[in-house]
Write a structure and sequence with these properties.
about 550 residues; alpha/beta; Rossmann fold; 2 domains; 9-stranded mixed β-sheet; 6-stranded parallel β-sheet; 20 helices
């Protein structure tokens, strides 16, 4: 193990960060992952900082109207947890120079996060950083100019010496083009500048569907100023035509990673024909243990006490919140199944309701209770339809199905610690990783999931949770998954919960052990350093590529790994 001051200094670029519900500059899993990384880097005293955007309006507060439809509000962001650095940089958008103010926060147990904002007095470009994932392609490109080009310029203005630039998804790849431009200005050719930039950049891809990977027309990029001094030939060499942000990320990086072993197989197959792309490793996501593991549960687990009393206390806290928010009273002795994540069709939140003749008796006779939560993207009609359908289910089964509106970090912590069972039903292979199940597992909440994302790496069926389906991908996948879901629920989950409580409690402990040992952000960061950061800088710095970051040694000297 080497000393921390010998490790490469990393700037982690992401469009969103979920550090705390009081700072809603996040939309979902991408931001939660980024926030957990910054907190774990702080715990481990690693030389990493974050670069993002300070949005003027928080991501949607989504409430259900009397017509069962989700409606969006965008509250103003309060900056009480932020520090104005007093530093500004400029980027070009269209043919004008846009001032960008730099803010900073370390208020939530995180390493320094620098946030860029164009809402500067006297400027009429405040619209750029108004709203996360809102507006048109013009808005998105302008935002990505601020994040990428502005982000690199902010690091220079703050005099921060960075050796690795980590782009989390394609939103940040214009930072790579800014690094190339800097080198060209120092006299290198484009090809030389590109080659040297690859020795500084790593890239994480998340999207396992080709159509979901962002791309833009060159005309629009040039019009908005994203070319940043480069030519069409140079831009298309990096990103293709149309310009794919993911292709650019893979071509700008020395190494890239997918976010689970299963996703790695998918990503390598998706991008196998891209010339000069980075090798795509599999580094499975993890979660920040201290943020997501309930203290009562943690204490009972570590002291080898009976987990059930602690679990029931946490479950009652969740049921109290359900009553407060919905007026419904659920039974703490009945099996409580949770489902909370972004509302989008591939996650199939309504799958369990597909055969009323099977599910209705379970709900009407009180064998199971279901609690749902989640937000649809404000412009996603299909996602909002799913939410509306879940609301109708709460009316069909008023005593046993609830929906909690305005899903956020606070509600996420309650749900992933207070349910008995965590349901995960994505259409394989569309769940790149998924982390809500990891959070549940940390709290002894057993997973019932298809074999997608992280779960194939963690699942020991009947030992620390259950799988349903066999990983089949084909035209009748949904029906096969559905029948397996019902069979597993009826023949394994429900009988174990009601008739074999000692086994359920053993499974809870095995679930926590699995999550603590394998699915923390501390483990993920160790792999980032050992598998991506150190090998990428080894040629430039003389740090040997086989040098390792030893988390166990950090723990022994009193640094928390979580």
């Amino acid at each position: 193990m080497i000393q921390h001051n010998s490790l490469p200094r990393v700037a982690y670029f992401c469009m969103e960060y979920a550090l705390h519900e009081s700072l809603p500059i996040y939309a979902g899993g991408l931001g939660v992952l980024a926030g957990d990384i910054l907190k774990s880097a702080k715990d481990l005293e690693l030389p990493l900082i974050g670069v993002g955007i300070l949005w003027r309006e928080g991501y949607t507060k989504q409430h259900i109207g009397p017509d069962n439809w989700p409606y969006d509000e965008f509250p103003a962001i309060y900056t009480s947890s932020l520090q104005d650095t007093g530093v500004q940089v400029q980027v070009q958008v269209y043919d004008r120079m846009v001032p960008v103010r730099i803010w900073k926060t370390q208020a939530f147990g995180n390493v320094a996060l620098y946030l860029l904002n164009t809402d500067v007095p006297g400027s009429d470009f405040g619209w750029i950083t108004r709203r996360l994932y809102g507006g048109s392609a013009h808005d998105r490109i302008a935002q990505e100019i601020v994040l990428g080009i502005g982000g690199v310029r902010a690091l220079r203005a703050l005099d921060l010496d960075i050796q690795i630039y980590h782009f989390n998804e394609g939103h940040a790849v214009l930072a790579g083009l800014e690094l190339i431009r800097e080198k060209i200005n120092r006299g290198l050719s484009f090809e030389e500048a590109w080659r040297h930039t690859r020795d500084e950049v790593v890239f994480t891809t998340h999207t396992p569907v080709m159509a979901g990977n962002e791309s833009h027309s060159h005309d629009l990029l040039q019009q908005l100023g994203a070319y940043n001094g480069l030519t069409y030939r140079e831009m298309s060499t990096v990103g293709g035509d149309p310009f794919s942000m993911t292709v650019a990320g893979l071509r700008l990086a020395r190494l890239a990673n997918a976010v689970s072993k299963q996703h790695g197989l998918t990503a390598r197959a998706m991008w196998q024909d891209i010339a000069e792309r980075a090798p795509i490793l599999s580094i499975t996501n993890g979660v920040h243990q201290r943020t997501w593991q309930n203290e009562d549960i943690k204490k009972a687990y570590e002291e080898k006490c009976d987990l059930w009393p602690a679990h029931q206390r946490v479950k009652k806290q969740l049921l109290f919140e359900i009553t407060k928010r919905t007026g419904k009273t659920l039974d703490p002795e009945k099996l409580l199944i949770g489902f909370a994540r972004r509302a989008t069709p591939y996650k199939r939140s309504n799958l369990i309701f597909s055969r009323p003749e099977i599910i209705s008796p379970l709900l009407e006779e009180g064998h199971i209770q279901l609690v749902f939560s989640g937000k649809a993207h404000p412009q996603d009609e299909a996602g909002k339809n799913l939410v509306s359908e879940l609301i109708r289910m709460t009316q069909t089964y008023p005593q046993s199905v609830v929906f909690l509106e305005n899903y956020d970090l606070e509600l996420g912590r309650l749900l992933t610690s207070g349910c008995d069972l965590w349901l995960n039903t994505p259409q394989r292979p569309l769940e790149a990783s998924g982390t809500s199940g990891m959070k549940a597992a940390l709290n002894g909440v057993l997973n019932l999931s298809v074999l997608d994302g992280w779960w194939p790496e963690g699942c020991l069926h009947g030992v620390n949770g259950w799988q349903f389906g066999d990983g089949y991908e084909g035209p009748d996948q949904e029906q096969r998954d559905l029948l397996s879901l019902y069979k597993t629920l009826l023949t394994e989950v429900i009988p174990t919960y009601y008739r074999d409580r000692p086994r359920w409690q053993r499974m809870m402990r095995a679930s926590i052990e699995m999550a603590v040992c394998t699915f923390t952000a501390a483990r993920m960061l160790k792999e980032y350093y050992n598998l991506m950061y150190l090998p990428t800088v080894s040629k430039r710095t003389g740090i040997k590529a086989n040098t390792t970051v030893n988390v166990t040694a950090m723990m022994k000297r009193g640094v928390s790994p979580s």
